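Today's session is about reading a structure prediction critically. Students often jump straight to the picture, but the first step is always the sequence itself: look for stretches that repeat, for charged clusters, for runs of hydrophobic residues. Only then move on to the predicted structure, which in these notes is written as discrete structure tokens rather than atom positions. Here is the chain we will use throughout the hour.
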Amino acid sequence: MRSLLILIGIMYQIILCFLTAFILTYIAIPSIINIAKVKKLTDEPGERTSHSKSIPTLGGIGIFAGVLFSIILWTPFQVFGNLQYILCAFVIIFLVGAKDDILPLTPYKKMLGQVFAAAILVFKANIRISSFYGIFGIQELPMWFSIIFSLFTILVIINAFNLIDGINTLCASTGVLICVTLGYWFKETDQVVLSIISFALVGSLIAFMKFNISPAKIFMGDTGSMLVGTICAILAISFIEVNKTMEPSELKIISAPAFTIAILFIPLYDTLRVFIIRIFNGRSPFTPDKQHIHHVLISLGMNHLQATSLLISVNTIVIMMTFSLIELGNFNLLVMILVLGCTFSAVIHFLVKRSPKGLLL
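Below is the predicted structure for this chain, in token form.
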């Protein structure tokens, strides 16, 4: 009976967290749209954009407000002392993103802010990868390597979400998929705070998508995409570490690193893909262009909703396949995920070559 009451209490917190974030973001976004239009804080059409009119770019402020307020209101701080550091990292990401959305920062300054936030997570909140689970014969990582690798991982995930935020609802939908998947697992394993963080973001993103679905009234901007990336990085690393330390059970994922990459498939796949294409074409991997997978799908004649739906479906299939074959182990699953990524690229390349526009990849 006591365990049932505890479960009901957890569900109560999670539902209220979701609803609080949803309602606050839903109420805040229209005001943000009006202010952005009055102050001309909009994204203008250009060569690298897929919209044809000026759109406000401060949607991330509404997402940040909903997530932060909901977490602070419903999280039991007494059972999760590291939460204060996570919230500090959120504030740093918010300030960097908002500054970049209003007055663009240089890539160096933007990266410096991300490194600062990542350092808070690694050094103060102890969000850190400590083991390779036997991949390449490596188990426990030396502290110095664990710190460097964790910082690198957080920065990669943050920027991966920043890079996929190129068409309506893609970044938000990907964030919802990842947070629902990990948030449910955290709820089942009694990781209440991580589940609350997950569903707070889900609530805010669903509310935001109401205004971002085509024709978009607002974009989330770097403020939103970097916050989504930061939260997903925290959840992903925590998922790997919790599985490492938990006792054997039906909920324990023995191939947690590979399953985490499957969950983050679209952001990581697109980042790796565009970097390879740019290097192959003799350009810097950090040179902006329209070679992202969502841009390619748009060039093939899809609209934003169709492209987003396809990519979310692919990510979902990869998650389901990886989970169903979880007993294969990390290395075999990583090879499978790599093969799936290459196959998806080959199919897209074939379709592009057959298209009248003949976009070169």
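Discussion point for the tutorial: The longest helix spans residues 2-38.
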